[in-house]
Design goal:
The chain is mostly beta strands. It contains two helices and ten strands. Helices cover 9% and strands 39% of the residues. The model is unreliable at 8-19 (pLDDT under 50).
Amino acid sequence: MKRTLAAVVMAIFAGPAAAAPLCNDLGFAGLLAACNRGEPIELTLASGQPLSKDGSYTLQSGAYYKLEITADGSAELAVSGADFFRAIWMNEIVINKIEVRPMAIDSIEFDAAGTAELSFIAIKPGSHVLRIPGSSGDAQKVTFNIQ
């Protein structure tokens, strides 16, 4: 059976990569459309407390997510994860109603209580970790599995 180039290309892209967005009609907003948004993710920075209720999250490549990191001010803490931040496209970081649109980041540090909201699109499949720098415990990290 002879296959055309178009049939081969369609067969390659018919797998999970072709089904990345969560909705069929993204409309004018594209990947940032409301129908393409995954569940919000919440992390808490607090001295002696786990970083997340769930130790890991499964994200879909091509989907839009919001990550809210809240520090309680009990200690000067940060989250670091260059591998994770390079596996996503960062839309913006909002801190005290100030929107920042960075090219790249390695970490976010909180000197006092506060909240940072990151909105992003998951891109690179794989397992990526955010952790409190200098920590080694499983409760002080969170793993993002991008599919």
